[in-house]
Amino acid sequence: MSEADDSASQRGTGLNPLPQSQPALPSIPIVAFNRRELDTILRLYGRMVADGEWRDYAIDLLKDKAVFSVFRRSSEMPLYRIEKDPKLARRQGAYSVVATGGMILKRGHDLSQVLRVLEKKKHLRLVDA
To answer: Whole-model pTM?
Structure first.
């Protein structure tokens, strides 16, 4: 059997030499919200949507932080950004709420405490009887 006959017989049987496996690319770590954090954020989001304050949201998962952006309308800039930055976890806290202009409204270690800055305050009103 010659080399031509041998390669032809391999093609006919579907036996091809395996290609050299390439090394896997190193995985890039991404910061993300865990299930509990998302549950806390989405509870607040649901209340604010029911009140007509917020209408849309976006989640960005980056190398150094995770961002949950809240919009009044989807075509605008976000009203608020809820950020998780693990680098700041030991210092000022990993969670922060940032307003449209970039001003940090609240920062801390506990997400539910940080989100309280966004909850609407109940105002007392005098009602005439």
So the answer is: 0.70
